Amino acid sequence: MTARCAVAAGPEDAAGGWTIASFDRVSSTMDEARRLAVEGAPDRTVVRADVQTGGRGRLGRPWVSSIGNVYTTAILRPAISTARAAELSLVAAVAVADTVARFSESVRLKWPNDVLLNGGKVSGVLLEAVAEGVSLSAVLVGIGVNVGSHPDLPDRPTSRIETADADTVFAALLDAFDQRYRQWSQHGLGGIRFAWLERGPDLGSPMIVGLGADRVRGTFAGLEPDGSLRLELADGSVRQISSGEVLG
Q1: Tens of pLDDT, residues 85-140
Q2: Edge-to-edge order in the sheet of strand 2-8
Q3: Distance separating alpha carbons of residues 56 and 193, to the nearest angstrom
Q4: Residue spans in the chain of domains classed CATH 2.30.30.100
Q5: pTM for this prediction
Q6: Class of 206-246 per CATH?
Q7: How would CATH label the architecture of 2-199?
Q8: Per-residue confidence (pLDDT) for residue 154, from 0 to 100
Q9: Per-residue confidence (pLDDT) for residue 225, from 0 to 100
Q10: In which band, very low, low, confident or very high, does the pLDDT at 54 lie, cut at 50, 70 and 90?
């Protein structure tokens, strides 16, 4: 771990009240954020690194972390129940989509929190909780955005933002996340859910969802008020899915 700087952001109206800890290289920004959270780092602390040697995404997948991309994790301490923490997955996805849309068109969302650019994955979000006993102490929101490069993956297309550098994208991400986090904090998930649906799949689109070793086929029927996926099955019934992976 090599620290470059750890500086407090300016007033809230200038930088959203973020406290930014920047590193040249870490195992992962999520691991570093967890360490800082346990040590008492305040709400809206953001860890950023140029390179991750052990970055990871959802389901424990490795996240290729070449220099020139955005790797960051925010430490958030909202006064909510553990059950509501998953809502921040959609908040982050919408904020990233807002960010990417500032530089490129054809931005779409794939449930729950993948951001697609021209059909390829440009960003992903990972949530982890920090607990104190049975209470929620913090939510860690990890975000990676492909800017300087994107990995070649055998099972899915990828893409990158080609019209900006990582510093510019990171600054835009802080601004977009601040706006969406405030919206959610003040008004709940309703507006975030609506924004997600605007960039999500069309109603009735065929969908395959992985639930562990099982595969469920149906069509997209929207999102529940809590952000869960609504999947209409062949018999016309609707299944609510709170955790899974859209495979196609």
Answers
A1: 999 999 999 999 999 999 998 999 999 999 999 999 999 899 999 998 888 999 99
A2: 2-8, 19-26, 45-52, 70-76, 135-145, 120-132, 114-117, 107-110
A3: 26
A4: 206-246
A5: 0.90
A6: mainly beta
A7: 2-Layer Sandwich (3.30)
A8: 72
A9: 97
A10: confident
22's torsion region: left (phi>0), alpha (psi -120 to 50) or beta? beta
Q: Which two tokens stand for residue 138?
A: 């913090």
Structure tokens at 210: 């992985």
Helices 87-101, 190-199: axis angle to 10 degrees equals 50
Residue ranges of the chain that CATH labels 3.30.930.10: 2-199
Give the residue carrying structure tokens 């997955």: 89
Residues 5-50: tens digit of each pLDDT = 444 333 333 356 899 999 999 999 999 999 999 999 999 999 999 9
Q: What pLDDT, on a 0 to 100 scale, did the predictor assign at position 17?
A: 86
CA distance linking residue 183 with residue 189, whole number of Å: 8
Residue with tokens 């975000």: 143
Angle at the Cα of 148 (from 171 to 192), degrees rounded to 5?
45
- What is the pLDDT, as a whole number, of residue 60? 55
> What's the pLDDT band for 56 if we cut at 50, 70, 90?
low
